[in-house]
Structures are given as structure tokens and as C-alpha cells.
């Protein structure tokens, strides 16, 4: 019996895979639980169309991310923070501050997509990693200056 999986099942396959299972397993467990649907010719056509549309959307998102990454290579940020005489900053420079600085320069990047190579604890230069897409990553240098 061929079925189309609606979600990932550890021992069987991933979402949208067409797999063969024993009829009782498919009819009595997978289909009633909503884990799968019967792989009829019409369901296969619908699945193929959905996969094609999803691939098109992912390609568009990736191209947009690559465009932003290309423009971000020229950006250098300056973040102000209160610091002591030794250069140690009070508080922390966090991803929200980086996202706000990027927004001021015209880039709308979600703060959850920003990480640091080393945590900024002193005045100086650092690098922020921006994960714009699972395949598109860019490094943005920034400087922490004393206010």
C-alpha cells in the first residue's frame, strides 16, 4: 500500500515522502491518526504541484537573502555603550542593539538570526553573524564605542 506522509515519522520517512507500508499499518494506524493519506493518482498530482510551488517560494526567499547579504558586506556598524576606564562595558551589547543599528541603515533583520563570534564585553571591534537563510550567512563587523 502506498501512502503520502503528512509529517516526519522516524522509522518511515519525512513529510511529503511517498512510502510503501503494509496495508494494516497504513489503514489502521497512519491514516486514522492523520500521519498519512492514501497515495492515489490525484493525491500524487497535488503533492507534485505543492512541492513545485514550495520550491519556487524557497528559491525566491533565498534570492532575496542573497541580495541583502551582498549589500551587507559594505556595512560597518558603531554601537554606543557605557564603559568604565578600563574599557569594560556596563551591561551588554546584544542582538537587539545590532538589529536596531541595521534597521537605521535600512536593513530589516530579525534579532533571532544574529549571533556573535565572541561576546562583546569590552570596547573594540567585533563580528556579528547574520543567518539570513539556511544557505545564506554573512558576517557584519561592528565597533563598540564608549559613550
UniProtKB/TrEMBL annotation:
Name this polypeptide is given: Large ribosomal subunit protein bL9
Role of this protein: Binds to the 23S rRNA.
Family membership noted in the UniProt record: Belongs to the bacterial ribosomal protein bL9 family.
Annotated organism of origin: Pedobacter frigoris
Cellular component terms per the entry's GO annotation: ribonucleoprotein complex; ribosome
Any one GO molecular function term: structural constituent of ribosome
GO biological process, one term: translation
Domain Ribosomal protein L9: from-to ranges: 1-46
Domain (Large ribosomal subunit protein bL9 C-terminal) ranges: 64-146
Keywords from the UniProt entry: Ribonucleoprotein, Ribosomal protein, RNA-binding, rRNA-binding
Cross-referenced Pfam families: Ribosomal_L9_C, Ribosomal_L9_N
